[in-house]
Specification:
This protein is α/β, with parallel strands linked by helices. The protein is built from five helices and nine strands; from the N terminus they run βββαββαβαβαβαβ. The two termini are about 30 Å apart.
C-alpha cells in the first residue's frame, strides 16, 4: 500500500508545497517532490501498478458545523475534539484549509483526468473492503509530533511524516494515535465535496461523515 503525503503550501518559488510517497515495503521515502503534478503522478502510478493508493493531505478536510438550531451559531468556529491549541479555525489552520481546498481540488481533478475510473472514499473500512481504490485522509503534523527537518527542508520532512503516520495508522490500527473528531457537531467532509466536484465517484453519505485525521504521535522524551 502506497501513501502519498502532501504538505500544503504556496507553489510559488521557492515552493512551500511538498509531497512524499512511502511504501509499506520500503524503509525510506520512495520518492518526493515539491509540485502538485508530481504528487498526482505518484498517485496515478500507484493506482496503475498496485490498484490502490492513499492521499494524506496536511490541511483541515472536515470541519464541524452545529445543528440548525436558533442558538447553535454560538459554537461556530470552535476547535474539533482533539485539536488542542491547534484548532482548524485559527490563523494557521484557516490558511491551510483555504490553500488545501484549492490544491486538493486541483489534484483530484487532475487525477480524475488521468484515471477516470477511480473512485474515492474517506472511510478506511470501505477502502479495506475494496469499495474504492483511493483513500483520502487528513494528516495533522504539528507541535511535538513535528519531525526534524531533512536535507530537502521542513516541508519535505512534514510530507514524509504525514505519509508514514498514515501508513502506520492503516497498517497497525488507530491505537495510540490522538483522536480528532467534529463530534458532537456535524461533520462537513471537504474531501467528499472536492472529490465529487472533481468528477470522482464518492459515496454521498460521506459528505456528512468525519474523515480520518492522522495526528502524528509526540516524540518520546529521551
Amino acid at each position: 500500500m502506497r501513501v502519498i503525503g502532501v504538505d500544503i503550501g504556496s507553489v510559488k518559488a521557492p515552493s512551500k508545497f511538498a509531497w512524499a510517497a512511502v511504501d509499506s515495503l520500503e524503509p525510506a521515502a520512495v520518492v518526493c517532490g515539491d509540485d502538485p503534478e508530481g504528487a498526482v503522478q505518484a498517485l496515478s502510478r500507484s493506482l496503475a501498478h498496485e490498484g490502490r493508493a492513499v492521499l494524506a493531505v496536511e490541511a483541515p478536510m472536515a470541519i464541524p458545523v452545529p445543528a440548525p438550531d436558533g442558538e447553535a451559531w454560538r459554537v461556530l468556529g470552535r476547535a474539533r475534539g482533539g485539536e488542542g491549541n491547534r484548532p482548524w479555525s485559527a490563523a494557521a489552520g484557516a490558511g491551510a484549509l483555504a490553500t488545501g481546498v484549492a490544491q486538493t481540488a486541483w489534484m483530484l481533478s487532475r487525477l480524475h483526468s488521468l484515471a477516470p475510473e477511480v473512485s474515492a472514499t474517506t472511510q478506511p473500512e470501505r477502502f479495506a473492503a475494496g469499495q474504492a481504490r483511493l483513500l483520502l485522509a487528513e494528516a495533522f503534523v504539528s507541535g511535538t509530533g513535528k519531525p526534524v527537518p531533512v536535507a530537502a527542508g521542513q516541508h519535505a520532512a512534514d510530507a514524509e511524516a504525514a505519509a508514514r503516520a498514515t501508513l502506520a495508522y492503516l497498517t497497525d490500527g488507530p491505537d495510540g494515535f490522538p483522536y480528532v473528531t467534529c463530534a458532537p457537531q456535524r461533520a462537513l467532509n471537504l474531501f467528499a465535496l472536492l472529490a465529487s466536484w472533481a468528477g470522482m465517484p464518492v459515496p454521498g453519505d460521506e459528505l456528512h461523515l468525519d474523515v480520518v485525521v492522522v495526528r502524528t504521535k509526540p516524540k518520546p522524551v529521551v
